[in-house]
Design a protein that fits this description.
The structure is a homodimer of 152-residue chains.
Chain A: H1 12-20, H2 25-33, H3 39-46, H4 50-62, E1 66-70, E2 78-82, H5 84-87, H6 90-103, E3 115-116, E4 128-129, E5 135-136, E6 141-142
Antiparallel strand pairs in A: 1-2, 4-5
The structure holds a DNA duplex (30 and 30 nucleotides).
Chain lengths: 152, 152
Amino acid sequence: MARKRFDDSNCSVARALNEVGDWWSLLIILHAMYGTRRFVDFERQLGIAKNILGDRLTRLVDNRVLRKVDVGEHGSRFEYRLTEKGQDLFPVVIALRQWGDKWNPVSDESQLDLRDRATGRAVQPVTVQDADGNPLTIRDVFVPDEPGTKTA
Amino acid sequence: MARKRFDDSNCSVARALNEVGDWWSLLIILHAMYGTRRFVDFERQLGIAKNILGDRLTRLVDNRVLRKVDVGEHGSRFEYRLTEKGQDLFPVVIALRQWGDKWNPVSDESQLDLRDRATGRAVQPVTVQDADGNPLTIRDVFVPDEPGTKTA
DNA sequence: TAATCTGGTTTTAAAATGCAACCTAATTCG
DNA sequence: CGAATTAGGTTGCATTTTAAAACCAGATTA
């Protein structure tokens, strides 16, 4: 049967996963953040089939995560660039990357070394923080009221 | 053909997606963070088919994101609980939720209202921060050297 | 003791994936 | 200039995944 979709779910995580929650989309976004813009470059870097790549790019453009920009003189060269919405996935991608580095490190020691352009210092681990900037774990937070089944 | 796997990828995002990057796994983790522990509760809350749920739970247990705890007197009641590794996905899930709330809000105004248990104040948006705690956008950071094709 | 709950496994279909082949327009190379 | 290559796809086909429903066995409850 068809994969279940969550377009109308009242859980925003479900709706977010609907847009970027498949195997390739987040990797495409990651590479776009690293600077990749062209169809063939995504294809080569990711090792993804052309039809799947085309489908994902189209869907990401439809969802306004990427936008397709015509860069050819005679209109046959394109670039896929992150929109503001797409760039806003930065914390998600970095948090996921840090999680992967922490829990499934590769011997090769290719930990993410992301640095502040202004100071050259490494960025901090992404955390959920209270109003004062102190990191919070899941045990430190609660959701006021919310009947329970609202998040399915 | 089979879905491509990235177990051996030297990109930790790819490897992370291998563990939690499908449609259901992150939703299961989200609900586990909200307190769900039992097979039937996941089933009912998510509206997921039993076979898929079983498969995902097994895989999450294999990957040590969840652990299966025997809570029955005669060994037939189980709970699936987040491990530390699973709890560590908290920033990822919250960042994704905030992104969804921001870019695909639902009229119903069910924005995430997550509060610090100690103070009752709302948590901050998840951001990537420099060493001083200032938020950074993707344009503010760089990756030192890294030949380029290392992240596929 | 019967009914129900829990936690699954087993079919069976529709759909998604991946590969290879093909295709057209533009660009580069000799 | 002509030929080869590049960019950006589309199409067909075999293989997997998925989802739904049926079924099932061991506890628990009525």
